[in-house]
Description:
The chain is an alpha/beta fold and 403 residues long.
Amino acid sequence: MKLDPSMLDQLTADCKTPQDVAALYSQLLQRVIDRGLDAEMDAHLGYARNAKAEGTPRTNRRNGGTSKTLKGTFGEVSVITPRDRQASFEPQLVKKRQTRLGDFEDKILALYARGLSTRDIESALKDLYGVEVSHDVIARVTDAVLDEVRAWQERPLEAVYPIVWLDGLVVKVRHSKQVVNKAAHVVLGVNLRGEKEVLGIWLSESEGAKFWAGVLSELKQRGVRDIYIACMDGLKGLPEAVTAHYPQTLTQQCIVHLVRASMRYVAAKEMKAVAAALKRIYTSVSIEDAERELDAFEQTWGGKYRAAVRVWRNAWPNVVPFFQFPPEIRRITYTTNAIESLNATMRKYTRNRRIFPNDESAIKSLYLAIREAGARWRSIHNWRPALQVFQILFGEDRVPVSD
């Protein structure tokens, strides 16, 4: 679109510095976005603002608007997102919960999520797109993520999560001129619709049951009223921390973790035979069959691999719940694969940055990795049969009846 020169002169008459041009651009951008959102609302309702009703009565109308601040390399722009009475309007120009604009900002965050430093990103953008984006701009874009992280970490959660996985991974962070290992505590949940959702991520000096107790307390404050099954590794004291906050929750130890822990004590030449014996335990139809297989395992291998047997005996109270579940739920809970897959994605995106300069840098990278992973997630396969089983096991007073 070519503007009339006199119009351009009028628009730029007071622009004497690059800052003035940026301010003018922000105002124009705000007008364009507001006009675009209004046009989207007109299309959604089927009539323009202030148009007279014709024919059948209108069942939906405009209902004011919500102010939102969008951040970008241009600064900040305040726009108004229109609302409708039925709350069915889904804007596309500026989507709900969107807080940033600009393709290059998305590219910057994607590169940052993959572990590149701000200076590496500056060089990559110049090489790939021939565009020079200053170190300071890149730093501002990535720092803006912290506001998003805080809002995400403090958001209200759903009342019921049938299954949650609790796990942690280690990241290296520079602290007082030293490099220390810190534990990133991650909680992944499945809601009543069968959708996976990361409930939060917390950084601490080490992974321990005491810190997990604080995490669970925070989840309760954010609205989580009930959890049916909590899946976890073999961290001592973690099952007790869960049941202290959620007394009705079944704690389930990861079977894969148990197999790995017990196989550490087995000689290489006998791993195949021992693995087959262990498989007979966790594939048993009932708890009685599983206990018989565990006794048989101890009788056969206990003399040579007593430590491997002890791993299963010590964990058995948190393995027992697994055998009351039918196949629909066993397939979901028998392993922490869901959260291990998430952790693998986080490690993939953070391994390029072997040492983070501070806690905030680590949290930003982990959050961006979670956001990228979540964009590819799908609902749990065959979730409805599993939910029906939950209703039978736990009762309709805990499990809502699905439509």
